[in-house]
Amino acid sequence: MSKGKKYIESAKLVDKNALYSAAEAMELVVKTSKAKFDETIELAVRLGVDPRHADQQVRGAVVLPHGTGKTVKVLVFAKGDKAKEAEAAGADYVGAEELVDKIQKENWFDFDVVVATPDMMGVVGRLGRVLGPKGLMPNPKSGTVTFDVTKALADIKAGKVEYRVDKTAIIHVPLGKGSFGAEKLVDNFHTLMEAVIKAKPAAAKGQYVKSVVISSTMGPGIKVNPTKVLE
Fold first, then answer.
1. What is the pLDDT of residues 34-85, one digit of tens each?
2. CB under 8 Å to 81, separation ≥6 — which residues?
3. Residue whose C-alpha is closest to residue 223's, from 11, 32, 15
4. What is the C-alpha to C-alpha distance for residues 191 and 227, in angstroms, rounded to an integer?
5. Ordered strands of the 222-224 beta sheet
6. In degrees to the nearest 10, what's the CA dihedral of 77, 83, 88, 94?
7. Which CATH superfamily is domain 5-68+160-228 in?
C-alpha cells in the first residue's frame, strides 16, 4: 500500500527509534494528525501477560477526564421502572426481548455500548455469540451490568472507555481527538495508564508494560517510553 503525501510528511517528524515522554508524544501526534477530519488518537499498549490464562486477563473501564470526543449511542436492556429510569438518563435505546429479536433477525447494531440490569442478563445472554466478538457484551467488571443505570449512562456519556487485553496481549483504546490538543490528551493518557497499571494481575511476571504506541487515525505510530508512562 502506498503511503500518502501527508503521511510521509508526518512520518518525517517522528524518530522511529526514539522513546518519547507522554508529553512529547502527544505534541507529535497532534502535529501528525493532518487529515481533513478530526482524527481519533489511538493508544496501543502491549502487556507482559499471557491472555490465554484466566488469571492474567486485564480488563476494566475508566472515565477519561476529557472524554473521547465521540458521541456514544447506548442501548439499555431493562424493564419497568428501570426502563423508565434509563430513558430519563438519556439512553438512546431501551427495551427487552424485542431488542434481542431485532439484533438477531435484522442484524441491527446502531449502538456503541450495551448496558443491562442484572435481571435481564438471562435474556441478553442469548446474544453472546453476536455481541461478544464485537466487545459489546455487558460485563459487571466494566460497570455495564448494573441496577444503577443512571450512573452507568452518566459515566459512558462522559467518556468512559473499556480496555481489555486481546489475544496478542495488546490493549487498544481511543484517547480522544486531535483537536483536543496535547495537554488534554496527556491527561486522558495518564488516567488510562494508571487504571491499566492498577489492573496488573498478580500472576503477571517480568516487565508489565512492554510497549506503548500512540497514533492518529491516518498518522504514523509514536513510541512512548514504557517505563515512564505516568510521568
1. 888 999 999 999 999 999 999 999 999 999 999 999 889 999 999 999 999 9
2. none
3. 15
4. 16
5. 170-177, 40-47, 209-216, 222-224
6. 40
7. Ribosomal protein L1/L10, rRNA-binding domain (3.30.190.20)
Residue among 76, 72, 5, 8 at smallest CA distance from 40:
72
Reduced DSSP (H G I as helix, E B as strand, rest coil) percent helix, strand, coil of the chain, to 5: 40, 20, 40
Query: What length does the chain have?
Result: 231
Global model pTM greater than 0.85: no
Task: For cell 486485564, name the residue.
Answer: 58
Domain 74-157: CATH superfamily is Ribosomal protein L1/L10, domain II (3.40.50.790)
CA-closest candidate to residue 46, choices 187, 224, 217: 224
- Are 144 and 131 in contact by the 8 Å Cβ rule? The answer is no
